[in-house]
Structures are given as C-alpha cells and as structure tokens.
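Notes from the 1:1 (GR / supervisor)

We went over the backlog. Supervisor wanted to see one worked example end to end before approving the batch request, so GR pasted a single chain during the call. The sequence is below; no edits were made to it. Supervisor asked that the structure be written out right there so they could see what the output format looks like.
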Amino acid sequence: TILVDDLETYISQYSTYGAIQRLQFIASKTEQKQLKIDSLKLCLDQMKRTTNAKGYMEVYNQLKELMALGEGPQPFCDTVWVEATQKQASVLKDVYESDLHQAKVTQIKETVRTCHTQLTNLCMEQGDYASALKYVSKSREYCSEPQAVVATCMNIIRLGALLRQYSDIQSFASKAHHTPFKDEAGQSKIYAAYGLYYLASGKYKDAAINFAQVKQQDLGPGFNDVICPQDLALYGVLCALASLERGEVQSKLL
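Structure output shown during the call:
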C-alpha cells in the first residue's frame, strides 16, 4: 500500500515516463480519493516535463471530474502551455521528417540513424510509444557500430517496458547480450531486462537468478523508466522466495 505522504518519494525513483505510468496506474487502482487526487496532480506536473499535451488534458479532465463535487479550488489548466506545446511539436515533427527524407537521399547510415532517433525521442515525449517503437526499430537497420546496436536495443527494451510488450524485451535483451563490446553497465541492464521478462512470464526462478546478477549502481537514471533499484531488490527477493530452496538462495543469490 502506498501512503499519500510517501507518494512523492516513491515517484522520485523513476524517470519522467516511468513516473507518469505509475502515477496513472495508482490513480486508476486506488479507492482512496485523496490518493487518487494527489496521483493525478503529480502526474500533471510530470506531463509538463514532456510535450504530451494530449496526455496532459486527459489527466486534467480526470482530475477536474474527481474534484468537481468536492470543496476547495478546482485544478488549474495551463492552456497556454498546451497550445504552445502542440504547435512546437507539430513544427518539430515536420522538421525531423524532412531531415529523415534528406538523410535517406544521402544514404549516410549514421545520419539516417540519428534522424530516426530524433523522431523516436519526439514520439516518446508526446506519449506515442507505439510510434516511437516503430522509429527506433527502423534505426537498427542503420547501426554501423556495436555500441549503437546495444543503445538501440536498450531503447527498444525501454519502450517495451512502457508498452508492457515483454516479448520485445526478451528478444532485444538477447540481441544486446550477443553483441560485442558491452560494458558492465550494459550487461547489468540486460540481466534486469531478462528478469522482467521472466517475471512477467511466471518463470520466477529464472527471474530471481537474473535479478541477482544486476549491479544496482549500473542501472543509471536512463533505465529508471524500466526498473529502479528498489524494484530490483523487491522483485528479486519475492521471486527467490517463491521459487528457490534455501540452499539455492545461499548458493545462487548470496
């Protein structure tokens, strides 16, 4: 159970997209009205760190409806930000798509990959994770260095987690695992991704073993949309308790 007083501390563990997703989940599941209100208010603040004007309005309307019958001030809707953000996002998309078209004409792989990455990031900011996944998947064709392949796989894993497409997480964790020149941080993220896939698949022993191989300090803030250190510890312990004998806990995890 998440207490209202702990909500900001809990959410601070995650990057913006992970925080938004979890706040929306809490608001949709809790029966505590105040917790629902606080979750939606924090979600509005997080939305303004992105260019997701549509998502901002959806959260605002939920909050407005929830507070309509109560006492106290109604929530503030920043319509100036919404209009300016929508215009800016539209202009940027046109510019980035034009850049991509020109890059394909030149057939310079790294330039094409960079243009796909720009569109991936823009779609993520707008909350359009499906389109972001489409662009980042296409960018794989233009990766000329192993480091770029690993970075692309990590982005797909990140989007797979946000979309709850766990088969993508497993597939691209495997691709990253078999790509040379990974550093320790990259390998830890791969183990964490495998752990999430096995957890979602109900293979708790495999999940526990993979979570145990992750070094928390290697996850970094860029991976906190997928899993944070506290999640890692919690999932690892629960999976181990559910699937391992005492001797296995000592030999594999300690």
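Supervisor's comment: The two ends are 28 Å apart (CA to CA).
Batch request approved.
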